[in-house]
Amino acid sequence: MTVALATVVLTTRSILQRDMNERIGQILTQETAEFDNFVTHGRDPDTGERFTEARQLLTVYLQRQFPEPTEELLGFIQEDPRPTVIRQPREIPSPLPLHRDRPSLEAIAADDRRSGTLRRESGEVRWAKVPIAARAGEPASMFVVALHADRAQSSTDNVVGVLLAISGVALLMTCAVSWAVAGSILAPVRLVRSTAAQLTEQDLTRRIPIRGRDDISALAETFNAMLDRLERAFAVQRRFVDDAGHELRTPITIVRGHLELMSQGEGPSSVQERRETVRLVTDELDRMSRIVEDLLLLAKTERPDFVHPEPVQLAELTADVFVKARALGDRRWELPEVAEREVSLDPQRITQAMVQLAQNAVQHTGPGQTVRIGSRLSGGQVRLYVADSGSGVPAEDADVIFERFRRGTAGRRGARSGGGSGAGLGLSIVKAIAEGHHGRVELRPTLGGGATFELVLEAT
To answer: Looking at residue 197, what is its pLDDT?
Structure first.
C-alpha cells in the first residue's frame, strides 16, 4: 500500500509539474503575442493615432492588463543615467519582485534570447520580452513578462502535501482495518494452533468451534475430524492395553505359580502329576493365545479396512455357514429358510460372526437340542440368525452380554456368556462385525425357549 500511494503521489507531482510548465509557457506566449498585436493595432487614446512614444505605449498597455497573481508585466526603458521601469500599481506575492531587482532586469535586457529562465536566490523567474522599435534619438525599450515560478511551484507543492497527508491517513486507516480483518481471519488458525499445542495423550477431547462456511471453517472441520480419529485410535489402544492386562493377569499368575513350584522342587512328584501340571499350563497358554487373538481382532474393528465387501449370493453363504456349524457339536441342526439374493458384504467376517453365534449356541444347549441357522429378507434388510433351544438370556443380561468381558449376572453360574475364548469377547466380536457392515446385532427370545441372535444388515 505504501509503494502504491508513493507511486500515486510522485506521478501526480510529475503531472502537476508538467502542467505548470506548460501553463507558464502558454502565458508567456500569449502575453507577448497580445503585446505585439497592441503595438501593431493599438491607438493612443489622447490623439486617436498610433503610438509614437514607447513610454506612452507601455503605460497605456499596462493599464489595460489583468495578469495572473504570480505574473508581472513591466516596461523597461534604457535611459541615462538610470533605466526607467514602468509597472502596474499592484504588489507581487514574491520576496523580491522583478521591478525592484534592477540587476536582474538589466540581465534580461542584455540577453539576446526572447525568453528564458532567471535563477535568483529569492526565487526562479520565467521571462519573455518584446523589444520595441525605437525612433531616432529615443532610448531602447522593451516589454517584459515575468512569472515567478517558485510561487506557482508552491501551489503544486501544496497539492502534493495535501495528497501526502491524505495518503498517510489512508495508509494508517488501511493498516488498522487490515490488522483487524487479518486478525479476524487468522483467529481460527491461531485457535487451531493453540488447540494442537494443548493436546496431550491424556486429553484428546478438545475441539475447535466451527462458525461459517469458509475455508477456515473447512480447515477447522478437517482438524476436528482428525482429532476424532486420533481419539478413537488412542481409545482403542488404551482399551486394548487395559483389556489385555485385565484378562491375561489370571492365566499368567496360574502359569507362573505352577512353574515356580516345579522349579523349587515343591511341585508334583509323580510323572502323572507332572503331566497334569504341564497340561494345565498348556491350557492356560492356549487360553492366553485365544484372548490375544480376540483382542487384536477387536482392535482391528476400528480400522476402515476391517471389512472388504464384495457381491455374495446370500443362499450360498447361509448354506456354507450351516455346513461349518454342524461340526461344532452333536446338536439337532436345522436350516429352516434361506434368502435368495445377491448382497454386498464381507463373506469371511460374516461367516466368522455366524460361526461364533453357533459356537455360543452349542455351549448353551445339550446333545439333541435344536439349533436353527437361516437367512431372510425383511423390509429391505438382510437378517441372518442363529436360534437355539437352550436356557435363553435373562432380561437383565441382554444389554451387557455384547460388551467386552461381560458375561452377565448368570455368567458365573454356567448360563449365557460371550463364548469364544471364555473371556467374554465372542459376542463383542459379533457386534463389531455387524457394525463394520453398518448394521447391528439383535437378541430376542426363541419361541418355545432359548435365544435367537440376528445380524441385521442393509440389503445393498
So the answer is: 77
Tell me the sheet residues that pair with 374.
385
Angle at 198 between CA 193 and CA 203, to 5 degrees: 135
Cell 520580452 sits on residue: 129
Residues 28 and 143: beta-carbon distance below 8 Å: no
pLDDT of residue 411: 44
State the Cα–Cα distance between residues 58 and 309, nearest whole angstrom.
Answer: 111
DSSP code of 308?
-
pLDDT confidence of residue 243: 66
Q: Residue 413: its pLDDT value, please?
A: 40
Reading the block at residue 251, the C-alpha cell is 492365566
**Residue 386 confidence (pLDDT):** 95
Residues in a beta bridge with 332: 370
Instruction: Say how far apart CA 189 and CA 192 lie, in whole Å.
Output: 5
CB 376 within 8 A of CB 383: yes
Q: What is the pLDDT of residue 412?
A: 37
- Given a cut of 50, the residues of the chain with pLDDT beneath it are 410-421
Query: Peptide bond before 81: cis, by omega within 30 degrees of 0?
Result: yes
Element (H, E) at 248: helix 215-263
Rounded Cα–Cα distance for residues 418 and 402 (Å): 7
Cβ atoms within 10 Å, residue 205: 8
* C-alpha to C-alpha distance for 301 and 345, rounded to whole angstroms: 15
What is the sign, positive or negative, of the torsion defined by CA atoms of 285, 286, 292, 295?
negative
| pLDDT of amino acid 266 | 56
Q: Are 411 and 355 in contact (CB under 8 A)?
A: no
CA 244, CA 295: separation in Å to the nearest integer?
A: 7
Contact in structure between 148 and 125 (CB atoms under 8 Å): yes
Specify the DSSP class assigned to residue 371: E
Residue 331 has a pLDDT of 93
pTM of the predicted protein model: 0.48
| Phi, psi angle pair for 343, to nearest 5° | -130, 165
pLDDT of residue 268: 56
Contact 441, 456 (CB under 8 A): yes
- Alpha carbons 307 and 347: distance in angstroms, whole number: 9
Q: Alpha-carbon distance 145 to 129, whole Å?
A: 6
Say what the pLDDT of residue 415 is: 43
Q: Which helix (H) or strand (E) segment is 175 a member of?
A: helix 149-198
Specify the amino acid at residue 241. Answer: V
pLDDT at position 202 is 61
Q: Which segments of 264-339 does DSSP mark as H helices, in order?
A: 271-300, 314-325
